[in-house]
Amino acid sequence: MTPPDRFQEFNPIWRDVFSGEKPVLRRGRHFFKMISPSANERCRLCEAPFEGIAAPVLRWFGRGPWHRNPHFCETCEAAFRQNRGGAELDVAVLFADVRGSTPMAASMRPIEFAELMQRFYLAATKVFRDTDGVVDKMVGDEVIGLYFPGLVDIDYRLAAARAGMKLLRVTGHGAASGPWLSIGVGVHAGKAFVGSLGVAGGSYEFAVLGDTMNVGARIASVAQGGEIIISDSVWPQVTGEMEAEQRTLDLKGVAAPMNAHVAFVT
């Protein structure tokens, strides 16, 4: 028997749920959609509604939003915790960084800066929810969204790119008055490890790791305020939706120059 603290290299449930290859939750999802068909806020896995008449009752049974990630219910979070390990999966990643956050924080009271970041986090969470994304992290002046084939109705790469453009718009880019917060966005896609890492009986983390995440972060780091930089791994699914200019990126930690496509709010 594998010791509980031992890393499980492959756990098929992660592949089955997030890749979309096996609709393991189809029966449960159909039930929750049937009892609350009009609910917009739901668990991204089981479709348990977080609003409407049924929501208060379902919370008693562990189907309320997970406090660490409002896209999952507490029951699905428990399944993550129990299924250590993970799988290598296709994923599209969106990184959005605030531009000029250091001088901005220096010019404001700490509480004022915290309120501004809170507004940013709430805006990003709504964008991710509306585009079937999953919140990975909200740390400091950065938010990270994830898009999986098994959780998105359209192509997951296109969904990530649309979310990036939407996030620029909701922060005021393209508005006559200018942005209320200047951000740069990077969107990339590829293989990543998706799973649960931690210690049995202790803390754990829903983790997405690998070069795809690292490159996505690097792309966002060179995006100027109001720019969304889309890698070649995503652009073929976006062509025709956005106008962009080509740019060659020399990214820290990436051996070769990288072709990318830079779009702006229109």
What would you note in describing this structure?
Strands 3, 4, 5, 6, 7, 8, 9 and 10 form an eight-stranded mixed β-sheet that branches. This protein has nine helices and ten strands. The chain has 266 residues and is α+β, with helices and mostly antiparallel strands.
What are the SSEs and their pairings?
Blueprint (H helix, E strand, L loop, with lengths): L11 H8 L6 H10 L19 H6 L4 E2 L2 E5 H9 L2 E14 L2 H6 L3 H21 L3 E6 L2 E6 L8 H15 L12 E16 L5 E6 L1 H11 L5 E5 L3 H4 L5 E6 L8 E7 L2
Parallel strand pairs: 6-8
Antiparallel strand pairs: 1-2, 3-5, 3-6, 4-5, 6-7, 8-10, 9-10
Helix pairs in contact: 6-7
Short structural description:
This protein is an alpha+beta fold.
Give the mean pLDDT: 87
What's the shape?
A: globular
Helical content, roughly? Answer: 25-40%
Work out the oligomeric state of the chains in this entry: single chain
Domain tally: 2
Taken in chain order, the helices and strands follow as HHHEEHEHHEEHEEHEHEE
**The CATH homology group name of the largest domain:** Nucleotide cyclase, GGDEF domain
Main sheet summary: 8 strands, mixed
